Amino acid sequence: MLADEEATSARDALLGRTSELLGSVKHRRVDRPEYTRFRLGLPPGADYAFSVWIYDDGEPQISARLPESAAGETFWSRHFELPDYPDVTSRNLEFLEVLDRIVSWQTRITQARGWLAWSFQCHALVGTEWVPVGGVAAAKWLDVRDRSAKEKEYFSPPLRGCEGAVEQGQEADER
């Protein structure tokens, strides 16, 4: 099998597993030549909504955006880059585990102000413990919604089994 065929096969398998995992979670699938995006519903009371990206090379990513954000603007993301894993299977398994936490449990994203950067950390409330999902930092001079607080927390209830989740806006499907 050629390398391109293997990558396509792995990507297609990951798309299938992602669709199965999302199951009844309200979402909209957007297929583009360079990626497939699953825009997850915004549950009542949620401060943010998640999107799941699977690129044509098979790399998965998860991002979150605030409902009032401009199209393509995210404030948290988790990249699953192949160099960080021993192989494609390990990367995809971790991605699916993280996605399962995000849709099954309450999540919290903490925005913290540092000396040189803003940090955004996501955790899932598994049982009674906040388990890390991943984090990202942004240069301090970039635009951040609430600059007044040294630390701010955003929350979302579990997505699986959530009644009343609404579909994210119909704006252009850009990053």
Structural write-up:
The protein is of the alpha+beta class. The protein has one domain (3-156). The protein has helices at residues 3-22, 88-104; strands at residues 27-31, 35-40, 49-55, 60-65, 76-79, 107-113, 117-126, 129-139, 151-156. The strands form two sheets. A five-stranded antiparallel β-sheet has the order 1-2-3-4-5, covered by helices on one side. The longest helix has 20 residues, at 3-22. The chain is globular. It starts with a helix and ends in a 19-residue tail after the last strand. Mean pLDDT is 84; it is low at 170-175.
Short key terms for the protein model shown above:
9 strands; 175 residues; 2 helices; 21% helix; alpha+beta; four-stranded antiparallel beta sheet; single chain
Secondary structure layout plus pairing:
Blueprint: H1 3-22, E1 27-31, E2 35-40, E3 49-55, E4 60-65, E5 76-79, H2 88-104, E6 107-113, E7 117-126, E8 129-139, E9 151-156
Helix pairs in contact: 1-2
Spatial extent as radius of gyration? 16 Å
Biggest sheet, spatial arrangement of strands: 1-2-3-4-5
- Helical fraction equals 10-25%
Number of separate helices: 2
Outline the biggest β-sheet. 5 strands, antiparallel
Provide the low-confidence segments as ranges: 170-175
Please give the alpha-carbon distance between the first and last residues: 33 Å
Give average pLDDT, whole number: 84
The geometry reads as globular
Please, how many domains? 1
SS-derived structural category: alpha+beta
TL;DR?
With 175 residues, the chain is α+β, with helices and mostly antiparallel strands. The protein is built from two helices and nine strands; from the N terminus they run H-E-E-E-E-E-H-E-E-E-E. The protein is 21% helix and 35% strand.
